[in-house]
Amino acid sequence: MQKGPAMAVPTKTDSHGYGGYKGSRSPVAEAFRVLRTNLQFAAVDKDLKVILVTSPSPNEGKSTIVEYLAQTISQTGKKVMVLDGDLISPTLHLYFGIPNQRGLSNLIVGDADFTVFTRLKEYPNLSVITTGPIPPNSSELLGSARMKHLMDRLREEYDVVIMDSPPILPATDAVVASSLADGVILVVQAGRTRSGEVHHAQEMLEAAHANLLGVVLNRARRGVNDYYDTRTYGAYSTEPAKPEEAPAQS
Asked: Could you tell me which residues belong to the region Disordered (predicted)?
């Protein structure tokens, strides 16, 4: 497994979501363009159509990373699908302001067709599949043959699929879902996530033969890489000129 570096540092933005971000020259927009560029370099010698985004523990900002990264990639003209695979505590429907009555869980059990996705008006190249009803057996659904079939179809119809998942340490879902992805981004919160949690999460991904693309440091300030042992797991920050703290989301 590649123990890649952190590829961007989200910094403070005054409004969450689309407002103030689209076409922005703000530090947060620039940070995500850096992340997008590094993912493009990572895809030079390998297929990188499905990207899983997770974190060691809850509330470290993974879903925010999914939202902004999807918007940033879609602005290049690529057809992007956001898939909310956090079948335990979903939030992406709230971030995008769309309903969640039906979604991924319905698709997996055969209770809905492929039209459950939502295409976003402000981002014509960006579509979202929410979780739908929360199932009692989330890891089994993510590891099912129907889920694999769904991912195969998404690979055919979209340029990039970005999948949110539950945190790694509290549940097995992220490790199961990593087998569906070409690469994994691990989101940690600077100054909050313990290095032992990061190492444990990496070990679990390594045992699952996942391809770790890198670590994204959320809520990072200048000098935050002093907190993380960069020699051990390669975390570093790519900072805008005047980095500020950013709000962490789930």
From this structure: 1-20
* Spatial separation of the C-alpha atoms in residues 171 and 149, rounded to whole Å: 23
User: Burial code of 17-52, b = ≥16 C-beta within 10 A, e = fewer?
Assistant: bbeebeeeeebbbbbbebbbebbeebbeeeebbbbb
What does the pLDDT look like over 67-116, one tens digit per residue?
999 999 999 999 999 999 999 999 999 999 999 999 999 999 998 888 88
Task: Give the side-chain half-sphere CA count within 13 A for 24.
Answer: 20
Between CA 191 and CA 175 the distance in angstroms is 25
Domain total in the chain: 1
40 within domain boundaries = yes
CA distance 147 to 248: 29
For residue 136, is it within any domain? yes
Q: What is the pLDDT of residues 104-126, one digit of tens each?
A: 999 999 988 888 889 888 899 99
Are the CB atoms for 33 and 72 separated by under 8 Å?
A: yes
